[in-house]
Design brief:
Layout lengths: L2 H5 L4 H6 L5 H4 L3 E2 L5 H10 L1 H15 L3 E7 L10 H9 L8 H14 L2 E6 L4 E4 L4 E5 L5 E6 L2 E3 L4 E5 L17 H18 L7 E4 L6 H15 L8 E4 L19 H15 L14 H28 L1 E5 L8 H16 L5 H8 L33 H4 L1
Parallel strand pairs: 9-10
Antiparallel strand pairs: 1-5, 2-11, 3-4, 3-8, 5-6, 6-7
Helix pairs in contact: 4-5, 4-8, 5-7, 5-10, 8-10
Length: about 400
């Protein structure tokens, strides 16, 4: 509260009930998925680098467990849920039918392809809702009036929503694959062109000449007969018929090396990986000297931000402080070593207690670790550093 709120007679309850005056203009529409996720789904299933890149992020994010604080940090949307229950839902069993890893993989796949995650909590278990089918009904007074999926309606207190970044909407996010959509289409078209060429659909392999002009009916009959006998789709040559004295100058200036598209495909694949947030060097074969810093950058700039966005949404819903457990990630071990030295210096310097350091590093609480350590000073007093120098000797010690 500000100092003038007391003069005006405002209470904390009055401030909590104050609504956003601009929400009336924001809450006029129904927010459904802005993206045609079918294109992204097809690219995920058919283009190798898209499938590999998405699976890398999905698997790496799903492997990171969550540390749950034992105390409520604030009032959540779902009151009455204990910390032990939240830990079970987020690290072991979200519902009776799925393990936590498969549940998270479904969520992150939705996050990358649609840009949103929707989780239904019935008071005991969490269930994944396909993001492409969920519609957000904006409220003219608060924020969200309700969520609908086909003929099913959910209240805002039943849904946990994780949103990717978006400029156009405060309700729905934009998938990370959207900037790479054009590149994915180009890669698919180059592959299709190669397929058609090698099936002899682009360049004819045989020329049939006739000095007379043939009717279209005769040409069609000859083509059908030739294709039925030699099967161009199985590797046979597709013929070209020239009649009326026509002569062939050049059949094609395209060679097989130009149709390989290898350099163009590799450059486009790098663009797709960069849009996902994956260093392309991580998918190259061979012994790369700088693979470790790229792995570290991949986790710090791609994986962990996704994990934190999920934890922030779950924090607000359950009311417990949530943090990602990175102690088992090999790519971040140097960072843990630096953190260990940092907290050791703070404990030995008497700035924080060992209990505070253990909590920051993700370790369980131990008894007798809540006292500040007074640093030992061999040059003087540990209590008063001003008392330095050689200790005063007694008469007996002088003798």
């Amino acid at each position: 509260m500000a100092w003038y709120d007391k003069i005006l007679g405002r209470t904390q309850e009055d401030l909590e009930e104050k609504l956003n005056p601009a929400q009336f203009h924001l809450g006029k529409d129904i927010e459904s998925s802005r993206e045609h996720t079918f294109s992204y789904e097809r690219a995920y299933e058919e283009i190798e680098v898209v499938n590999r890149g998405v699976n890398m992020i999905v698997d790496d994010v799903s492997e990171i467990p969550t540390l749950v604080s034992r105390e409520n940090s604030f009032r959540g949307v779902a009151p009455g849920v204990k910390a032990s229950k939240v830990e079970q839902l987020l690290n072991k069993s979200p519902n009776p039918y799925q393990d936590i890893n498969s549940f998270k993989r479904n969520l992150i796949t939705d996050y990358l392809i649609d840009g949103n995650i929707f989780i239904y909590f019935d008071g005991a278990h969490m269930y994944h809702l396909p993001a492409a089918d969920v519609k957000i009904h904006a409220s003219k007074d608060t924020y969200v009036e309700k969520y609908t999926m086909k003929d099913t309606t959910f209240s805002p207190d039943e849904i946990i929503h994780v949103k990717e970044n978006s400029f156009h909407s405060i309700y729905r996010g934009v998938p990370r694959l959207k900037p790479a959509l054009r590149t994915m289409i180009i890669v698919k078209q180059m592959r299709s062109f190669q397929d058609n060429f090698f099936k002899n659909g682009a360049v004819p392999g045989l020329v049939l000449k006739s000095p007379n002009t043939l009717s279209e009916k005769i040409k069609e009959r000859m083509m059908v007969s030739w294709q039925a006998r030699y099967r161009p789709d199985e590797g046979g040559r597709r013929p070209l018929i020239l009649d009326g004295g026509l002569e062939l100058d050049k059949l094609s200036n395209v060679n097989f090396k130009e149709l390989d598209f290898q350099t163009s495909i590799e450059e486009n694949e790098k663009m797709i990986l960069k849009a996902l947030g994956i260093p392309p060097i991580m998918l190259n074969s061979g012994n790369n000297a700088n693979i470790r810093p790229n792995m570290r950058m991949y986790y710090l700039e791609t994986v962990l931000p996704i994990v934190r966005k999920m934890n922030y949404a779950l924090e607000r819903y359950f009311g417990f402080e949530l943090k990602e457990d990175i102690t088992e990630i090999p790519a971040l071990q140097p960072e843990l070593r630096d953190a260990s030295g940092y907290y050791t210096a703070l404990v030995n310097g008497g700035i924080i207690t060992p209990a505070e350091a253990r909590k920051a590093l993700g370790f369980d609480f131990l008894d007798n670790t809540e006292d500040i350590r007074v640093p030992a000073n061999i040059a003087g007093s540990a209590v008063n550093p001003d008392e330095g120098g050689r200790p005063v000797e007694t008469e007996g010690e002088e003798e």
